Amino acid sequence: MIANAEIPLLSVRDLRVSFALDEGLVRAVDGTSFDVMPGQVLGVVGESGCGKSVTMKAILQLVERPGRITSGEIRFRRRDGNGSGRSRPLGRREDPTCATSAAARSR
Fold first, then answer.
1. What is the bridge-based pairing of β-strands 67-79 and 24-36?
2. Angle 46-88-63 from CA coordinates, rounded to 5°
3. 103 vs 98: CA distance, rounded Å
4. Is the peptide bond before 66 cis (omega within 30 degrees of 0)?
5. Tell me: the pLDDT tens digits for 61-73?
6. Residue 85: CB partners within 8 Å, gap ≥ 6?
7. How high does pLDDT run on average in the chain?
8. Structural domains counted in the chain
């Protein structure tokens, strides 16, 4: 069995967020993956317009139209009632317990 300290608190895999504009499709986030482990601090740095804020908004499920999470997986480890942690996918807006992929939540 894997100890809770070895399970990421947050796991993002192949996250892609696009914006359909009149000028064409803008890929704001194109395949980002990372883990945040217990006790770890993650700093996200980059040039202006590189997708830092859009990545964080996608994790929080706050991407506004015309933006859309097109693919990827976002998993957040929550504490169970008995105090143990288990990794679960973040859910759809309608039902926060059932989505298995980020793309399913943005439709």
1. unpaired
2. 40
3. 13
4. yes
5. 999 999 999 999 9
6. 4, 7, 9, 77, 78, 79
7. 79
8. 1
User: What is the average per-residue pLDDT within 89-100?
Assistant: 41
Burial of 39 (0-12, 13-18, 19+ CB in 10 A): exposed
**What tokens does 89 get?**
């996918």
In a 3-state reduction of DSSP, which class is residue 52? Answer: helix
- Tokens at residue 28, please? 């704001």
Cα 28 to Cα 98: distance, rounded to the nearest angstrom: 26
Domain housing 67:
4-105
Query: How far is CA 53 from each of CA 46, 48, 85, rounded to the nearest angstrom?
Result: 10, 10, 27
Q: Model confidence over 25-75: pLDDT tens digits?
A: 999 999 999 999 999 999 999 999 999 999 999 999 999 999 999 999 999
C-alpha 81, offset from chain centre:
24
